[in-house]
Design goal:
This protein is 21% helix and 37% strand.
């Protein structure tokens, strides 16, 4: 299964945020962010019935305090599989 979309994920101090050149989303929890992304991808036809797509989320390490960055090179990367 190929990666359908790549996003940058970060926390703005209040919400978790996803962004790429096509879409920007935010939500107070990872679960709410995932649910909104799934809803949008199903509604716009990116994921059709019976399909499975992968979405890769790469954490923006520049949002971490500088003293922590050297210890958290892969702080929060994730892959979400979405079924249509």
């Amino acid at each position: 299964m190929d990666v359908t979309m790549d996003f940058v994920i970060y926390h703005d101090g209040k919400n978790w945020c996803l962004t790429n050149d096509r879409l920007t989303l935010s939500g107070p929890t990872i679960a709410s962010l995932d649910a909104e992304l799934i809803r949008i991808m199903r509604e716009d036809g990116t994921v059709k019935t019976g399909e499975r797509k992968k979405v890769r989320m790469l954490f923006d390490n520049s949002t971490l305090p500088p003293v922590i960055r050297q210890y958290a090179q892969h702080y929060f990367n994730r892959v979400l599989e979405i079924e249509g």
